[in-house]
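fwd from M.: "can u put these together and see what the complex looks like"

so here's what she sent:
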Amino acid sequence: MNLSYLLDPAHWELGAPYSIPTLILAHLGYTVLALLIGTVVALPVGLYIGHTGRGSFLAINAGNAGRSLPTLGLLMLLVTLLGLGLLPVLIALTVLVIPPILTSTYAGMRSLDHRVVDAARGMGMRSWQVLTRVELPMALPVLMGGFRSAALQVVATATVAAAVGLSGLGRLLIDGLAVNDYSRVLAGAIVVAVLAVLVDLFLALVQRWIVSPGLKGIE
Amino acid sequence: MITFEDVVKVYPGGSTAVDHLSLELPTGRLTALVGPSGCGKTTSLRMINRMVTPTSGRILIDGEDVAERDEAALRRGIGYVIQHAGLFPHRTVLDNVATVPVLLGKTRREARAAALELLERVGLSADFAKRYPAQLSGGQQQRVGVARALAADPPIMLMDEPFSAVDPVVREQLHREFLRLQEDLGKTIALVTHDIDEAIKLGDRVAVFRTSGRLAQVGTPRELLAAPADDFVAEFVGRDRGLRGLSFDSAAGLPVRPVDGLLLDDAGRPVGWPGDDGPRDTGGTFTKDDSLRVVADLAIRSPVGIAVRVGPDGAADGLVSHHDLADYLAGRRS
């Protein structure tokens, strides 16, 4: 096992069909899509539950149930039901993303100082103004924590796409194993790990940018 | 004027928070709602801006039923100050103050300019504008809370224990500043407090609530101290109400005796009472503008039992012993 695969410039050629940059792009593509769909589903539900206090059992139990589902097993099940393609992969990854986002959104909303929310209502903000101008910005530090952990999990798990014939960094692992090319497996493992760190760093920057300085130190 | 018409609030589960409350809060005056915890004073306050809906009865503002107004529009026209200020931690001090004007459609720029003026009005320099609430002391936060409630210049202010989260020294200072502000602004204010001293000090009128949401007595602070309606009010107002009642009586009519025996400087200002080891401190002086309570206190603390009155120039112009004061009070009673 060595770094020869990783360090070979031929494997870094931009635009080549099986090069590492191409695989990274595909990998990021699955990640971003899954995060996007997961957020679109989980964020409004979490905000609704947090804002109204209704259905909190859903936020808590969905979180736990989702976490205990093995993604690879789910993916195989989906493939037998739906056939090969992008859809089963996206569904499996989205199922992975929803629990941390849902739970952290709900937790962020529940942790708010109720006096501040009371003041916002008492000053004449309508319900959606309270939500968007007060509750959401205040819940953002906790919410971003959940989003970052979801992103990390997806970056690591998106390798399963290769198991059902799609692209992504999983190709290096699966194909490498298939032909006993451990240098390729190692390259895949390293790139996934580095990518995960970079994605988290990027999100940390985003968090710094969108979270109010007034909330720093509370997160 | 804010009018409570036979208002009842029963919470689900059957506990009565407010029991047939009829009360008028006159325009331009501060009415303090005071009582022990669980007496329904906060619930009553929160029914004015519809944060709580009455079970029965009506609340009118200048004759108009609040239940018929749009909830958000009603609240934007009423300043709201709560305990611990409830500032938005993610917004700067300036943007906190600008909140309601922005809700009312002002541009952020206009609202911020006005907010800056208001900050000065409540005793905060422009340096505070860009800070966040977490960077302020409790007293400073409370000032921002008051400025925020005043920002849209509402005719009515609701204040729920606005000064109870700060230490006594700061509270004293906030009281003074607030009274001065209210003298200028003349808002119609409902102020909830559990502290009868605060109610008496700040209120033009005081409404005393008893447990389970019944009104025990309404009146001026002086009426309350002089003639409590029943034992509950008498006990709540406190044992020293006779002495405290003196703070509403001016010393202007109090007869004084000529200055005699007091050591004076060249300008006639008091230096002290003669003693074996040099002059003994008079313990302070009073003027015609002070209250009888100040005079009584000075007479008690004086080493010779005599309070010293001074004129506008600081020169001593009269003496009052505690006997004199007692005679004066006895004469007033008969």
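replying to her w this: The first strand of chain B starts at residue 2 and ends at 10.
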